[in-house]
Amino acid sequence: MSGTYNKMLCERCQQEILDLNDCTTPTWFGTAPVCSGECNVGDRVMARAQSSSDVPSDQDPGGFGKPCWSGWKVRCHQCRVLGRSLLGSSNKRPTCTVPKAGRAWSGTPAVVLKPVKTYAACCKECQDVSNCRRFHVGPSGCALFVGPKAELRVVPASYGRAGGGGWQAGSVQATA
Q1: Which SUPFAM superfamilies does the UniProt record give (predicted)?
Q2: Are 43 and 75 in contact (CB under 8 A)?
Q3: d(Cα 123, Cα 100) in Å, to the nearest integer?
Q4: Cα–Cα distance for residue pair 131/78, rounded to 1 Å
Q5: What are 173's strand-pairing partners?
Q6: How far, CA to CA in Å, does 78 sit from each of 39, 67, 150, 152, 153?
Q7: What is the pLDDT of residues 44-85, one digit of tens each?
Q8: Strand boundaries in the chain, DSSP class E
Q9: Which of 134, 140, 74 is nearest to 112 (CA)?
Q10: Rounded to whole angstroms, how far apart are CA atoms 38 and 76?
Q11: Distance CA 129, CA 95 (A)
């Protein structure tokens, strides 16, 4: 009834993949007057509000700006992916496969790291995440997949800059 909190459909991961102690400064997303703020995949939602007076008392309204006539602004921050025990029981780092140019994994990634734009950096992020099995990198960043099912698909060249060789997919394999 307050208008500040609304129902959300959430999916709880079996194992936390974000380090909630190592996050960026929270930022408000959504532009007045018609706000449609959303956090990116991998960002943590801190608050939702239509005006600075709607901001929950445990949150800082700083940077909120003009109120929304419709929709919501969302306060988010991106957290670092945890570096936990690696695949299998071996203490050795898993290795990444040779990149598959022009390919991407189907399905919903566990996290998307927008600043990560190279195959080598995306590979390292996947190596550092417990249960990460597959990843792809493209113009929109590095996507990490932890689930067992996915299909490797060709990214059509018709996607312009985002298609073809702009994408690279790989997977990690435990070392013996």
Answers
A1: Hairpin loop containing domain-like
A2: no
A3: 12
A4: 20
A5: 95
A6: 9, 24, 25, 27, 28
A7: 788 888 998 888 888 878 888 899 988 889 888 877 666 543
A8: 18-23, 27-29, 43-49, 73-81, 95-96, 100-101, 103-105, 111-113, 134-138, 141-145, 152-154, 168-173
A9: 140
A10: 8
A11: 13
Quote the CA–CA distance of 134 and 165 in Å, as a whole number: 18
Q: Of 77, 92, 69, 70, give the one whose Cα is nearest residue 29.
A: 77
Break the chain into its structural domains and give their ranges.
18-81, 95-173
CA distances from 97 to 18, 89, 113 (A): 24, 20, 20
What is the distance between the alpha carbons of residues 47 and 91, in angstroms, rounded to a whole number?
A: 40
Contact predicate 133/109, CB 8 Å: no
Q: Any idea of the CA torsion for 96, 109, 42, 130, to the nearest 10 degrees?
A: -40
State whether CATH 3.50.4.10 applies to domain 95-173: yes
Tens-place pLDDT, residues 137-161:
988 889 988 876 778 888 876 654 5
Retrieve residue 93's tokens: 């780092």
Closest C-alpha among 97, 92, 84, 98 to residue 176: 92
Phi, psi of 119 (to 5 degrees): -60, -45
